[in-house]
User: Fold these one by one.
Assistant:
Number 1:
Amino acid sequence: MELVKVEGLCVDVEYLIMGPLENNVYIISDGVGTFVVDPSARAEMIVEALAGRELDAIVLTHGHWDHTGAAAELREITGAPVIASAKEASSIQVPTDTGTSRIAKSCTVDRMVSSGDIIRVGDMEWKVIETPGHTPGSLCLFCIPQFGKHKQGLPVLVSGDTLFAGATGRTDFEGGSEEEMAASIKRLASLPDDTAVLPGHNALTTIGSERRRVFARFGSE
C-alpha cells in the first residue's frame, strides 16, 4: 500500500488509502510531534508507515466505522491518546447503528474537544472547528503556517467527511442534518482560498476550488 506524500503545505503530510471505503488516513508531523487522523483499518500498517516516529495523538473527525476501525488497536499499540469532539465521544465509545452498513468498533476517547479548542502536537497548533451535518459531532482541524513547520507552506484544513472535492458529506444517515451541514459549510467558507483541504475520501482540494463548486450551492461563496 503506497504512502503518499503531500508537498507544499505548512506541515508534513502523508497518507494511506485504506479500508473498503478507501479512506484517506493521514499522518501529520512537524518533525517534533506526529498524529494520525481517522485510522480506518490495519493498525499495524499505520505503525509501519510511522517509520519509528512516536505517535502523539489519534484524532477522529467523527465516529463512523470507516473512520474509527483501527483506532482502538492503534491506541493500544502506541499508547497515543484519542481525541474527538465532545459531542461525538459517546457514540465512539458506545457505537450504535447509524445506518452506514456497519456498527463501529468501540474506542476510548481520552480527550474531548469543542469549537475553538486548540490541539497541540509538537510545535503545531490546530484549531478545532465543529462542523455538524454529516454527524452531530463532526469536526475539522485548521492550521496556519505560523503554527506549522514550513512558514512558506499552505494553511491546512483536515475536513473529515464534511467537505470533499466537489461535494459535502452525506446528511441522510442517523444524526445527519442538511441544515447543520449548510451552516458548517458557511463556517468553512470563511477560510483563506489557498487553504489545502485534506478530506476523508477521494482527492485533496483547496478552499478556493470549492468556493464555486460547493460553497455557491449553499449561498456561501
Number 2:
Amino acid sequence: MNTEIYNAVRAAVRELVTLERPDTRRVRLLVVGCSTSEIAGGKIGKASVPELGGDVASAVLDEARALGVDAAFQCCEHLNRALAVERATAEKYGLDEVCAVPWPKAGGSCASAAYRLMKEPVLVESIQADAGLDIGCTLIGMHLKSVAIPIRLSMKSIGEAALSAALTRPKLIGGERAHYTL
C-alpha cells in the first residue's frame, strides 16, 4: 500500500466533507473520479495503476464510512462514466442500476477497486452528488447537483494528479438580487 497516497486521499475527503458551510446542509453523497495514470505521472487513460486504484478507493471508503457519507466512484468513458456504489446507496437514492462490472481497462483502476472492496456493489447510470473530488481531471461535473461551487482544498494534488473539489448548493430562484420586471 502507498500510505502517502492513502493518507492524502483521506485528508482530502475529510477536508471537503467537513468544510464550514453558510447553510446547515451536510454532505450526504460524495462522487470521486480518479485517474491512477495521472497520479503516477502518466497520461490519463494510458498508464493505469491498479494498486493505486486500491489505495484511493480504500481511503475514500474508509473516510466516508468514518464521516457517515455515501461514496460513488465514477468509471471511465468505456462504461459511459457509470458509478460504482453500494446497493444500499442505490436503493437509498433511487438510482438506476446498469449491468457491467468495472475492470482497470474498462471502468478504471479506482472504480474497479472500489467495486471489489464494497459489500454489495452495483453500477448506476448517474447520480446528483452533494460534493465531489476529481483526482486527475476526470470530469465529474455531470454527477454533481446543478449548482456546483469550486472549492480550493489545502492540497493541490494527489501524487502527480491535479486535485479539484466541489460542493453544491440549492438553486437561487429569487431574493433581493432577483429582477421581476425590466
Number 3:
Amino acid sequence: MDSIVKTDFDFSGLTGKYTGKVRDVYFIKEKYMVMVATDRISAFDVVLPRGIPYKGQVLNQIASKFLDSTQDIVRNWKIACPDPMVTVGYKCQPLPVEMIVRGYLTGSSWRSYKAGARQICGVDIPDGMREHQKFDHPIVTPTTKAEIGGHDQDISKEEIIAKGLIPADIYEKVEQAALKLFERGTEIARQKGLILVDTKYEFGLLDGDICLMDEIHTPDSSRYFYLDGYQERFDRGENQRQLSKEFVREWLMDNGFQGQKGQKVPEMTDQIVSGISDRYIELYEAVTGERFSKRPYGENIFESMEENIKNMLARLL
C-alpha cells in the first residue's frame, strides 16, 4: 500500500457518510463530522485513477495550521486533528456556493480573459492585463458547488442573492470574512517567501453564525507563487514558479484531457505519481516552514486511524 484512496469505518453514533472527490466524511449524531483526507486527487472535477502518496496528510496538516491561525477572523468547524489524515469538527449547514478570492489574473481566470471575457462572476476586469498580473485589489468570484460528477459554475453576487441561495446580509458577512482570510493568508505566505495567488473558501452556518468549513490555503484549494523572482519573470513574460495543483491540470491538458465527455485520463505512471507527491510535500514545507514527517503506510494504518478517531469521539460523546 502506497496511498489511501478509500476508507470504510463504523463509528458509534454514525448517522451517515459522504464520499467527496477527495474526502470521506462521516457524520456523528448529526452534530460532529469526521473528515478523512484521502490520497485521492481530482482535476477538472474528475477523480483521477491513482492516489498520491502523502497528499491527504499534507492537505490535512496544512489546513489544520491555517484553521488555527485564522480563528480570530471567523469561527471555523475544527475541533481537533486526532490523526495526520483526519480532522474532527462540527457539522455545519453548508452554504451552496464556494467563495473564490483572486489576487492575480491566473489559471482559469486568465484562460477566460484570454478568450475575450472582461467580466468574471459580475466583476469587471480591465483591458490590457497580462497573465499572472496582480489585481489592484483582490476580487471575489463565487462558484456554485457541483454535485458529484458535475462542474462548478461561475455565479455573481447579484445572482446568488436574487436566486435566494444566500440572504444578502449573510452573503456580505461571508464575502468580508473571505477577504480577511485571504489577507491573513497573504501575510503568512509572504513571511515564507510565497505569494498567495488565489484560493477557495467554503462557509456554513453553525448555531446561526457563519462558520468556515473544509480545508483552507492548501495546494488543492489555493495557488502559490514563489515571491523571489516573481517581478522579473512577469516583466519578461515568463511562467511563474508556482506551488499548486495547477501543474496537474497543465499535465492533463498537455495530454489532451480537460474533463470533457469522451476524453480519457492519460496514464498515471509511477514517475508521474511520485512527482506529484514530491510537489505536495514541497508545498507543505514551503508554506509551513517545517520539515514534512511522512506517516508510514503500514498494514495497520487503518486500525491506527480508526483507534485515534474513536478515542477522540469518546471524549466528545
Number 4:
Amino acid sequence: MTEYYYTSSPTSGHEERSFRAVFAGRVLAFDTDAGVFSKQHVDPGSELLCKSLPDTISGRVLDMGCGWGAMTVMTLARFPKVEVTMADVNERALELAVSNVEKNHMQAKAILSDGFEKIEGEFDAVITNPPIRAGKAVIYKMFEDAKEHLVPGGALYLVIRKQQGAPSALKFLKELYGRAEVIERDGGYWIIECVKA
C-alpha cells in the first residue's frame, strides 16, 4: 500500500538527508527523511507563501500541516517575534520539525494533531500548504476549522496550485470568509489570503 505524507506513523525505511537553504537573508539548515512531504528540498509553494506573508504578521501563528518544519523556520526567519505553533498528523514529520526549529536556534510549540483535532485557542494567522492528495473534503474542512481558530481580523494564508484546484478553492473561501483574495501568483502557485470578519 502506498504511504502518503499525511500518514500518522510512516513505516517506510529511513532515508535521512540534510541540506541548507537561503531565505530572508539567512542560511537555514534542515534535516528530512522518507515518509514526509518534499524531503529533498524546500517546496517552492511553501517558500512562496512565506515570502508573500505581509509585514504586519504578529502575535500567534499556527503552521497547520507543518511537515518537517520548513514554513515554521522560514516564518521565524522573517518574523522572529511571532509565537509559532506547528501541527501535523505525521509523527516522523513533527519530530523533524522540532529538531529543525532547534537546529536553527528558534523556538516553536509542536502538536501532534489530525487537522485541528487537538488545536486549542485562537491565532492571529494560520499558514498552510494543505495536503491536496488527501482530497477536497479534508482540505475544505481544514479551511473551515481554520476560521474557527482565528481571532477577528485574523487571516488564513494558503498555497495551492492552479491545476490542483486553486480557482474552485478561492470560490469556496470567498463564500466561507467573505474576504479572500490571491495575493501572489508564481509558477502555477496561488497564495490566497482569507480574512476573518
